[in-house]
Amino acid sequence: MIGILDYGAGNLKSVQKAFEYLKIDSKICEHPKEALIADKILIPGVGAFGKAIEALRKSSFEDTIFHAIQLQKPVLGICLGMQLLLSRSEELGNWNGLNIVEGNVVKFDRALGKVPLIGWNSLEEVASNSQLFKNIDPGTFFYFVHSYYCLPLEEKVVTAKSSFGNFFYAAALEKNGIFAVQFHPEKSGLGGLQVLKNFASL
Fold it and tell me: Which of 16, 55, 96, 142 is most exposed, with the fewest beta carbons within 10 Å of its own?
């Protein structure tokens, strides 16, 4: 069972409906105790980093995430849920993240184009050994909505990139059973559904 963390900053119903379509068992967890029995953890996220990380800590789901990692349960962060995994964010202030993946969350340069970046984009430099992108055709498009992007300290954790103008940034991360995507797989058609299916099959 996949536990979808309900900490007040997530696109929960869309994610759950995607799993239902795939006939994959999932549950929206309103309390850490519910998430502790899950086989895998999904961190959704929509909104601002500061409010989200405060809500995550207030709800005690931060401890749930670290407990899942300690037990080597796969964890997937989606969009803002990906950004929360990093060390720090400069969104509307300076915030400490979970520091599971070392690095910063920084704002796109407006000189590159209109911010927020909203729409469909393909992935570049997809790692051949990526577990999330198995059975997905090169050039598949995914749906992005964000003004900030992840800048990991270690390039090796980046398993796919996407472009904003002529600038390429991290679109997916994998590190020791921790997975993250900047796009919304639940809104990305068949390609996004395959990403969720691949996560569920880990």
Answer: 96
